């Protein structure tokens, strides 16, 4: 299952096929688009209409990604990020959709805004988590999951933080095409599955493109979580994490339906 996240209002994927779904929202680094549109309220209403259209088509499953990114203020100043992060809770409230959230070097402001709006959204995930143990514990006080990818597994400290996330409150993702697990990262020692890769100039559909994180590599994230937490039951772990994802974004997929899908995939050569 693939969840494609929106960055801009007009970057949407309502026509995506099969088990591909998308979010509607504005990324923190792109929040200037509200003001540059000349009419932020009209821009907001356009997002809301788009989300409603996507819900009708069964393709939009979350509001996002939105949040705060103080690592990349050169794209958008913090006050504008805060203003439109808060504004996008209205989208979640109006649509009853969960939120797909982004938090980078901004835990205090992020948590303060979530706290003020915690009754306006039904749940969600803070993805690509790279925060401290304190940030993790604060996020876990909300009705929220923590999303792990290669960026969450770079250092020994990152792995310690991940060890403290209960698997019942965790999701995994790739954040493809970014955030791959590299050889210099602390998590690499737990990676078991690898695939051949070739430079993009020598593209071959049986190989990964070198330097590009691809969806199949979510298996590596799973292996690092399994290894660093000492779980040693990768099938059970994958089932729990998949159920977490379905509960938030695909509540129509009961656990049994999710299991059937997983089993079907396993039986397919
Ligand atoms: Zn993000």
TrEMBL record:
Report what the protein is called. TatD related DNase
Organism in which the protein naturally occurs: Citrus sinensis (Sweet orange)
């Amino acid at each position: 299952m693939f969840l494609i996240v929106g960055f801009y209002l007009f970057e949407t994927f309502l026509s995506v096929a099969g088990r591909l779904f998308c979010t509607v929202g504005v990324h923190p680094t792109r929040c200037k688009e509200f003001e540059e549109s000349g009419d932020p309220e009209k821009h907001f209403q356009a997002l809301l209409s788009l989300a409603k259209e996507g819900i009708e088509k069964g393709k939009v499953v979350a509001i996002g990604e939105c949040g705060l990114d103080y690592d990349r203020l050169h794209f958008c100043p913090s006050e504008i990020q805060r203003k439109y992060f808060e504004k996008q809770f209205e989208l979640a409230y109006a649509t009853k959709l969960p939120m797909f959230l982004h938090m980078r070097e901004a835990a205090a402001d992020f948590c303060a805004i979530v706290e003020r709006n915690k009754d306006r959204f039904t749940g969600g995930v803070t993805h690509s988590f790279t925060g401290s143990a304190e940030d993790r514990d604060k996020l876990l006080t909300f009705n929220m999951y923590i999303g792990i990818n290669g960026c969450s597994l770079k250092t020994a400290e990152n792995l310690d933080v991940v060890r403290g996330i209960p698997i019942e409150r965790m999701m995994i993702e790739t954040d493809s095409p970014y955030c791959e697990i590299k050889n210099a990262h602390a998590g690499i020692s737990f990676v078991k599955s690898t695939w051949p890769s070739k430079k993009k100039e020598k593209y071959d559909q049986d190989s990964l493109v070198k330097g590009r994180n691809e969806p199949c590599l979510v298996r590596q994230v799973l292996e690092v979580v399994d290894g660093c937490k000492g779980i040693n039951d990768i099938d059970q772990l994958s089932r729990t994490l998949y159920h977490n994802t379905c509960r938030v974004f695909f509540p129509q997929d009961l656990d049994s339906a999710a299991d059937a899908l997983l089993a079907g995939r396993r039986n397919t050569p």
